[in-house]
């Protein structure tokens, strides 16, 4: 894998850049003259040009490319922006003020195959509506279709999505291992740490003491998930905490699972009122009940994404530690396929 390229003769600046790159987990190639940089210019995932050599680099007329940064300790120098334009850089990064940004730029450059995954949140309109089961089934169906999928358990009191999938004994990181993290998490490191089953990775909770997820930890996980996965599915608690609000704010779409009876609709309306404070695209998945399904969705004033039929054998299947059959010819598999097709960007 090609490494980021740094072009500078300033030893103090180079020391800072080596330290910043190390904080991002990146190794760099260093050129002390523009001629030395020529073989690496087009291949490096990121080029960082010190202000001390910007004019010399521009004089060599290197081919235009993206992801070139000009790094300077003197942002007020009137020649800074002229040098930025002449060298073909997209931005000026002053140090030490924007050191954090530079860490993220180096880290981005080391992601092997950056993606731009969609974030799909699922929340129950009332307890037992089936939101966790729907989250798990959507994740299984998506990963079965070779979409790299991250299933995030955001409900500390939900019993664990890993247990729902019959994988509670599988080794790998849980939330307790990540809650102290702030700032960026490498998507590659996240995938390597979590329990994985084919193209599906699962982030759930340890058993025992319950601790809330910090908002910053949820943000870091979802950012890493979007970079490293095609789809991130978040199973939310009905009582929204800071982490759930963070996930809703980053959701492409949110599915609200509604039971078509009077209490189910009234409860879903309360949940909807909370969720709508953090996200705009909320759609109903209607479970059978005494009320007409379309009328239940209309009473909430949100579109119906799907009607989810009852599956009497599903609970027994999951309690045996078995995964449900989600082939395209099964009712549940076909419903999940349709939902994913309708909700995900092409």
Describe how the helices and strands are arranged:
Layout: E1 5-7, H1 11-23, E2 29-31, H2 34-41, E3 47-50, H3 54-59, E4 68-72, H4 80-87, E5 91-94, H5 99-109, E6 118-124, H6 131-144, E7 149-153, H7 161-164, H8 187-193, E8 196-197, E9 200-203, H9 215-228, E10 231-235, H10 242-249, E11 253-259, H11 262-275, E12 282-287, H12 293-300, E13 304-307, H13 314-319, H14 331-343
Helix pairs in contact: 6-14, 8-9, 9-10, 11-12
Question: What characteristics describe this protein?
Answer:
346 residues; alpha/beta; Rossmann fold; 2 domains; 8-stranded mixed beta sheet; 5-stranded parallel beta sheet; 14 helices; 13 strands; elongated
Summarize the entry for a quick read.
The protein is an alpha/beta fold and 346 residues long. The chain has helices at 11-23, 34-41, 54-59, 80-87, 99-109, 131-144, 161-164, 187-193, 215-228, 242-249, 262-275, 293-300, 314-319, 331-343, and strands at 5-7, 29-31, 47-50, 68-72, 91-94, 118-124, 149-153, 196-197, 200-203, 231-235, 253-259, 282-287, 304-307. The chain has two domains: 5-109, Response regulator (Rossmann fold), CATH 3.40.50; 118-343, 3-Layer(aba) Sandwich (Rossmann fold).
CATH topology of the largest domain: the name is Rossmann fold
In round numbers, the mean pLDDT is 89
Largest sheet: 8 strands, mixed
Rg over CA atoms: 24 Å
Q: Which percent range fits the helix content?
A: 25-40%
């Amino acid at each position: 894998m090609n490494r980021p390229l740094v072009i500078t003769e300033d030893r103090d600046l180079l020391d800072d850049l080596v330290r910043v790159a190390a904080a991002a987990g990146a190794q760099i190639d260093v050129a002390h003259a523009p001629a030395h940089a020529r073989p690496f210019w087009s291949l490096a995932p990121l080029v960082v040009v010190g202000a001390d050599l910007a004019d010399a680099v521009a004089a060599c007329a290197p081919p235009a490319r993206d992801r070139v940064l000009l790094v300077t300790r003197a942002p007020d120098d009137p020649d800074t922006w002229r040098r930025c334009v002449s060298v073909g850089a997209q931005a000026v990064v002053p140090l030490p003020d924007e050191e954090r940004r530079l860490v993220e730029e180096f880290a981005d450059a080391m992601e092997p195959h950056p993606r731009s995954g969609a974030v799909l949140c699922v929340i129950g309109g009332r307890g037992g509506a089936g939101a966790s089961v729907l989250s798990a089934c959507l994740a299984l169906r998506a990963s079965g279709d070779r979409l790299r999928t991250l299933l995030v358990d955001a409900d500390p009191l939900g019993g664990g999505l890993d247990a729902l999938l019959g994988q509670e004994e599988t080794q790998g990181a849980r939330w307790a291992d990540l809650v102290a993290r702030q700032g960026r998490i490498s998507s590659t490191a996240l995938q390597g740490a979590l329990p994985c089953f084919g193209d599906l990775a699962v982030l759930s909770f340890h058993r025992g003491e319950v601790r809330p997820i910090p908002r910053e930890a949820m943000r870091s996980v979802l950012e890493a998930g979007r970079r490293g996965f095609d789809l991130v599915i978040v199973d939310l608690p009905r009582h929204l905490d800071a982490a759930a609000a963070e996930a809703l704010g980053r959701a492409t779409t949110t599915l609200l699972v509604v039971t078509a009876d009077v209490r189910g609709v009234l409860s879903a309306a309360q949940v909807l009122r909370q969720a709508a404070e953090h996200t705009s695209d909320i759609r109903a998945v209607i479970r059978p009940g005494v009320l007409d399904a379309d009328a239940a969705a209309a009473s909430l004033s949100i579109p119906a994404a799907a009607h989810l039929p009852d599956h009497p054998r599903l609970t027994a299947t999951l309690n045996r530690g078995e995964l449900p059959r989600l082939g395209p010819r099964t009712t549940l598999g076909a419903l999940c396929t349709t939902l994913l097709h309708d909700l995900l960007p092409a």
